[in-house]
Amino acid sequence: MNFKTGDTVLVIAGKDKGKEGKIIKVLRDKNKVVVEGVNVVKKHIKSNGQSAGSIEEMEKPIHASNVMIKDPKTGKRSRIGHTIDKDKKVRVAKKSNSKID
Prior knowledge:
Number of helices: 0
Structural class: mainly beta
């Protein structure tokens, strides 16, 4: 998987298709990512002795195949490629061939 925490991605499939957000967490073993503001669900928290119960909104993971990186130059979605730059492997957006930081 070529995604990293902090990348800006666009959702291309699912109930949140068309939304964009930053990656909060990458789950490499499950091939999933958690994106800010995408796949938001309500979780009911049971009360215990110290705190009252509540309903919290949280982001759940979505499959990595349902998101694409946002091209830094054009702002459109793009695939990720790799090139060698000064003896270091860097990620580039395939659409504009610009470096992804």
